[in-house]
Each structure stands twice: as C-alpha cells, then as structure tokens.
Amino acid sequence: MRTIFCILDSLGCGALPDAALYGDAASNTLRHILEAVPTLYLPNLQRLGLGHILELPQVPEVATPLASFGKMMMASPGKDTITGHWEMTGIRLERPFPLYPQGFPGEIITALQERIGRSTLGNVAASGTEIIERLGAEHRRTGYPIVYTSADSVFQIAAHEEVISLEELYHICQSARDILQGGHRVARVIARPFIGEPGSLRRTANRHDYAVEPMRPNLLTILQDAGISVHSIGKISDIFCQVGITDSSPTRNNLEGLMILEGLLAQQQEQGFYFLNLVDFDALYGHRNNPVGYAAALAEYDQFLPRLLQQLHLGDRLVITADHGCDPTIPGTDHTREYVPLLIYTPGRTGQPLGTRTSLADLAASECFARGLNRPLHGEIIPGYDII
Fold first, then answer.
1. pTM metric for this prediction
2. What is the pLDDT of residues 21-30, one digit of tens each?
3. How far apart are CA 280 and CA 293, in angstroms?
4. What number of H helices and E strands is found in the chain?
5. Distance between CA atoms of 202 and 39, rounded to whole angstroms?
6. String of b and e for 352-376 (b: at least 16 CB within 10 Å)?
7. CA angle (248 as vertex; 246, 253 as ends), nearest 5
C-alpha cells in the first residue's frame, strides 16, 4: 500500500457555515475560478468525479466517476496552512493561532531588533508583493529587513538577496521564531527573499517556513513509528518542523513537485506515504487575486494527472484535497474559510459518494485504520476508505 496526499493549496469549494465570522461568506474558490475563466476545462479531474462534489460550470458529473468523492469541513478554528495540514494528520486545535491585524507589539519588534543588531521596516498587515514594492527602495538604502503579517498567523520577513544574504535572513527568522513564544506563538515565521529592481521586484523560491512543532501523536509520527517512510514534497516538511518526516524534497513550483512525486513513485515500491503540497495555487494566484493564473495552474495539474495515475498500482491510494480556500475573485487577498474537495482514487475501484466529512482529521483516522495502526486522537473513519 502506498498513499499520496496531494494538497492543492487553497482550492476551497464553498463557504463553511461559520464563514461569515471570518468575512468569507461569499467565498467559493473553485466555482468562482471556473466562472471567471469559462475556457477552463478539467477533463481528468472531471473523470475522477470533481463535478459530483458541487455543481461546477465546465465540469459536469460523469456516469461512472473513477474516484470516490465528497468534501470536508475544517473543525479547528482558523483558515491557515498549518491548521489545515495539521488537522489532516489528526491534530485538532481548540483555539486559533494569534493574529496581528494592526502589526506586532512594540516589545516583539524591539526584542528582534536587539537580537539581530539592526532596525526593521514595516510591521503592518500587507500583501507580500505590495509591501516589497512599497518599501523595497528604503530596504536597499538602509539594509533593514521588512516585517509584515497578513490575516493568517504569520510573522513574515522580506529581504532582497543582494542586501541580506539568505543565510542571514534565515538567521533573522530563527531569531524571530525564538522570540515569538507563549501568547505570541504565531503559527509560522516565514523568510520571504526577493530580487530585482523597484518596479519589477519578485519573490524567489528560497522561501523558508519556521513553524511551531506539531503535537504528537499524529499521522506522520504514527506512520514513522511503524517503520513506514514519510516522504515530504514541497513545504510539508516546514509545516511539520520535520517531525515525522523521513525525507524531504523542496520544490520551486507545482510542476516540479509533481515530477518529483512521479519519480519517487517510479523508484519506490515500498508501503510509503507521500505528502505533496502544491503551493502555487495559493501563493501565486489566490493571494494575488489572479483567477486567470489560478485557472492555468489547475489546467496544468489536470494535464499531469494521467502521468501520476499511471504510476499507481493495485492497493495504492491517491487523495486529492486542499487545506483551506483563497478565493481570488472576492475582495481581499487572504485565505478564505471554506469546505475543501475530497477525491480518493485507487486503481481498479469505482467511485462512491463520501458525503460531507465534519473534519479533515478523518483522513488521518482512515489512513491509520487502513494500515492497521492506532488512530490519532481526532477523526472518524471514512466508510470504505480501506478498500476504496
């Protein structure tokens, strides 16, 4: 048995019942992208059963879906990357990570400046692409790193790679991670290096996340303790602070992540677990209000799917889902509180309806059950998961 969790980062499929509390009642990332780009067709996702999850333009139902289909709710409060990914592994948060819509308290910024021996710029909630254009010239003149946050629980530090080396930027971020504890324990500190000149600044692929360490046991630690290899592709290793990870493959884009997964599956016949995050959907298109780019990335993924499915054997399982929404068609640039789609494909099986799961943790419970392992604290077994 090999299982792949393929996370289409931010591909929500409709507002959750409590979405209004987050300002997201109008969100539906998947449907709105298809409505905004009527030339987008997803034939391979359609064959799997995507059109059975919700009514979608250009993606109708099919007579016999190849995958079982449904959608999932996030039971934990919040709508950030860590909350979604952790819940998939059986970790349910009782309270959200802290947010800083007005910027971080003075004592936090002062402590960081004292630790790194230089001042900082920004300390506001802002779009990452907007703030480096706004403060990029001053950053280059002063050498001060740019600190900012968003509607998520993140402390982001941006620096031009020619002004502050990657090594120094990573050191600054680790210092911030050390400081942000207790009541200020944000979910992630993120290094955001960029290059270019004012007017054409762009972030590089040298991003690095410093997340809080996940609680144990979780799906990854349970698998690893059972001697099952856990392969991280993309930012999964950062999200879990390397806890429960056997090996990690960083990626520069979605296509590279898919090709790495394809290569691993071709080489390895063991009972492994493969955890892939495709971040471009969120980072490049959701947060930047770019439904056209998002649509192109979905089409690229859909076109690659047959290559991925060819690598699967009888007994293998491919789970396609998301961690939250990030609707590029509604006001704002932040994540959205949404259901996430669920497709579960195994060669030789026909798809069945899975309904609406009340927690992403059902994936962890079901994966452990299918492998005969002790289940994590949270999550219910998805009927038929062990034979899907």
1. 0.90
2. 999 999 999 9
3. 10
4. 12, 14
5. 28
6. bebeebebbbbbbbbbbbbbebebb
7. 155
